[in-house]
Every structure is written in structure tokens, then in C-alpha cells.
Amino acid sequence: MKILLITKWKHAAEITGANKAFYALASALARHHKVTALSLTQTGGNPFFEVSPRVHLLTLNGCYDLQKRNLHKFLRLFRVTKEKRHRYDQEVEDPLWAQRIRPVLDREKPDLIIAFSPDLVRILLFTIKTACPIILTLRQSADVLLTPLGPKDRETLENAACVHVLRPEEVNKVQAKAPKSRVIYIPNGAFPSGRKSTLDNPIIIHAGRFSEHQKRQHLLIEAFQELQQEFPDWQVQLWGEGNESDPYVKHCHDLVNQYHLEKKIRFCGVTDQMAEKMEKASVFAFPSSTEGMSQALLEAMEIGLPPVGFKSCPSVSSIIQDGVNGLLCEDGLESFAAALRRLMSHPELRKKLGSNACKVRDTYNPEHIWSEWENLVNTVFAESSQPNHQYPAL
Q1: 3-state secondary structure 315-353
Q2: Helix (H) and strand (E) counts for the chain?
Q3: CA dist., res. 328 & res. 315, Å (int)
Q4: What is the DSSP letter of 126?
């Protein structure tokens, strides 16, 4: 089978969980199928994450030049509601994106497409009018990705061959927004690293791109400020993509300088050896407000790091079992600092929770997950080959 995976992001080398999942899925499917991975980007570049040589990589550059040109920006001012502006953006931009995508489809002639964005599925279905089945994979919460949801968006969900979600509770969320949609749950995998932390080093580690409203690294900086005199030997390592020219990254640096923690909190940048860095830490701090299903969290737990996260983040609280394989805290700085303090103070608690945390390698075994994906693509393709095919519940 010829499978096309398609996604869009500003840079092909972006270091995000969705990016990692894109190339991991392409590599897994390439074991048995002819796979092309198409990235619609602004600046191009090579993938940061490992990808199988069996995958045919395609990158189209300059794609974000298609968005919101001056005339478009002016005319959308007359759309007085968010929903009307959203619909106008689709009317203007979808044909422009289609011009870039259509030649690839004509050349590659895929039997099945897996799209990493509802926008891409809408373009494929209604502008290009693609004949082959399309699986939409949602890598973020439905509440985030499907708001606002216009009539065309609902039609997109209901006309996709299948909508894939990362958590079981997301199935009902999608079907509530699009009752006729066909939704299936397959989680992310916890990839085996072959490493295990001793949990003896006084290091708190965090991994994630810098994001004020999602990843919220400032909460970790502020929490550590509350704890640093009590724990003078401990340090924090912040791993992740972030340029100091970005206002939020600058704000985080300013906080560290303000608290005189330059020797205690390190901005470490990016690495392709994240497992090695995590192995040397003892606590994984994860103050996210929203996630799809975090690869960084699974990676840390697979190594045996006890994590601290917020109960209010559904994807975090669905993986972390409070007091079993990590700690969950209430919203607010005080609760987050208190959870960190418990782990910093009690090495035996760290080891108990860490021992359970590494069981994610069984719960989210990648080979089992790839098997589910293999079954899904084969089922969808087989059904599409039948005359007058419909897509019943899997």
C-alpha cells in the first residue's frame, strides 16, 4: 500500500512531540508499506528526529507565505465574529494550500493519507476532492484543536475515513462535536531507552519547547525559587527549543536573573540524547496546562523518573497516578512547590514512584501500538476498496 503522511509546521526540524510522532509513525508503517512523509513548512530543513531510510521524505518550503496577505488581513476586519473570521480564512487560504499539495498527490498517487491537522483534511476533502481514504490524527486535545468548530469543520470530521485520538476520553469529545464521525483511540508509545535513573542526583529536569500558556516553564522557576534555600544542592535543567529573542524565553531568563539562580537553573537547549540527560536526573517536573499525550512525559517515566504534574491537565492526569507512579498537584504555585518538595526530601518515595513509573513501557508498548496502526490502515484501505463503501465503527 502507498501511504502518504502529511503535516504542516513552520520548520521541518521543529522539536515537538507531534514532530517526533510524525516521523515515528512514518518509520513504523514503512516496514510493510511504501511511505511518503510530506512536510509543508516555511523554511524547510532536515528532520531533527530519527526516521527510517525506507521513508520517502518530501518538504515544501515557503508554505506559510500563503497565509493572511495584506488584502486578506484587511478584508477579514469586516468579519465581526471569531467564527466568521475563521470561515473567511478557510475560504481564502484553502485553495492556496491546495495548489501546493495537489501536484504531490498527482505524482505520489497514495492509496491512503494520514493527515496531522483538521485543516489539511478539510483541504484534501473539499478543495482537492481527494478520492482515497483519509485518516485524521489529532495530536492535541479536541477542546483545543476543534474550537471554533464551524459547519465545514464538522463535515470534515464526519467525512474522514477515521478520526484518531490519543486518549480514550477524547472519543466522546469528538463525537459530541461531530456525531457521525468514526473515532478510534490509539495512544502514543513509550519507546524503550535501555536506561534507568538511579534517582540519586539532585537534579530536577524538564523537557519541552518554551510556551507561556501551555508548557509554563516559569512555574518551575518560581517553584524552585521557593525551595532553593531549603535544598541548596539541587539544580534545575530546562531542556527545549526556545530563542532568547522570544519574549517568553526572555521572561524566563529574567526570572532566573531576578532570583539570582544563574548557577542553579540551566537553559540547556536541545539535544538528540534526551534519554541520557534524563537518566542523570531524579525528578521530572511537568507544569503543562494542556497536552495531547506527551512523549516527553512518557520518555521520562520509562527511564524511571517520578513526574510531578497538574491534575487539571487531562492528558497528564490520565498517565500519572497520584501517589503510585508520580505526583499530581492542584493548580497554583504552592501546590506545585509542595509536590516537588516531597520528592526532593524523600529518596525512598522517589524510588517507589520511579519503579512504578517505568511500567509505562508495558502499558504503552510501541510494538503493540504499531500493530494497532497497521490494523487500522489495512482495515480502512480494505473498506475503501469495496463498492459503495461506508465506514462503520471499528
Answers
A1: HHHCCCCECCCEEEECCCHHHHHHHHHHHHHCHHHHHHH
A2: 16, 13
A3: 12
A4: I
Q: Of 93 and 363, which is predicted with more confidence?
A: 363
Measured CA to CA, the distance from residue 211 to residue 197 in angstroms comes to: 27
Query: Given this model, what pLDDT does residue 226 score?
Result: 97
Task: Check whether 234 has a pLDDT greater than 50.
Answer: yes
Question: What is the predicted pLDDT for the residue at 86?
Answer: 62
What is the rounded distance in angstroms from the CA atom of residue 255 to the CA atom of residue 270? 21
- For the chain, domains (ranges, CATH) are 2-189+366-384 (3.40.50.2000), 203-363 (3.40.50.2000)
Q: Give dist(CA 387, CA 394) in Å, integer.
A: 19
DSSP string, 131-183: -S-EEEE--S-HHHHTSS--HHHHHHHHHSSEEEESSTHHHHHHHHHSTT--E
How do residues 237-252 score in pLDDT, each as one tens digit? 999 988 888 999 999 9
| DSSP letter assigned to residue 123 | I
Q: Average pLDDT, stretch 164-184?
A: 94
pLDDT (average), residues 205-215? 95
User: What pLDDT is recorded for position 392?
Assistant: 43
Residues 31 and 139: beta-carbon distance below 8 Å: no
Quote the crossing angle between the two packed helices 247-258 and 217-227, to the nearest 10°.
0
